[in-house]
Design a protein that fits this description.
two-stranded antiparallel ribbon, mainly alpha, Pol protein, DNA/RNA_pol_sf, 5 helices, Rev_trsase/Diguanyl_cyclase, 4 strands
Length: about 150
């Protein structure tokens, strides 16, 4: 929060005291956009292998067990705890297990559910070869006059 904006957040309490927010309170209309912009800027140096979407970080690598996850951990530590100044600062990284997370989502039951899922999939489409062809049957279900019939191809 900018120093000049702190007085604008003042709230009067029942005891007639004024309370001011020193950090951005949740509920302001631009809080999500501001947070997303901050996360995007913080992880910009890692954009070749780490995509961010609000508080989610998607790490990808063509090599199994690649250095990217380790670099992300180091970078995250740098952001939260300050600069890494010696090799001993890195020793904990080599003890951290690399975890591959694979998640399954429930089968969409409506066009609204499918639209939500495709929103995330479209955001990450550049990491899927032939994404347009894979998503075509799903996109066809979103057409105005399409009947909602979930089949094996979906």
């Amino acid at each position: 929060m900018r120093e000049s904006d702190i007085p604008l957040t003042a709230v009067s309490t029942p005891s007639r005291m004024l309370r001011e927010w020193l950090v951005m309170p949740h509920g302001l209309s631009n809080t999500p956009a501001t947070f997303n912009r901050l996360v995007t800027q913080l992880f910009r140096p890692l954009r070749t292998f780490a995509q961010t979407y609000f508080d989610d970080i998607f790490v990808h690598s063509r090599a199994e067990g690649g250095q990217t996850a380790m670099e992300l951990v180091i970078y995250s530590n740098h952001i939260t705890s300050g600069p890494i100044t010696s090799k001993s600062d890195l020793s904990w990284v080599f003890r951290c297990p690399i975890i591959l997370i694979h998640f399954t989502t429930p089968t969409p039951r409506s066009q609204k559910d499918l639209r939500k899922w495709l929103g995330l999939a479209n955001y990450l489409h550049k990491y899927s070869a032939g994404y347009a062809e894979l998503a075509r049957p799903l996109s066809d279900l979103l057409k105005k006059d399409a009947d909602w019939v979930w089949e094996q191809q979906h």
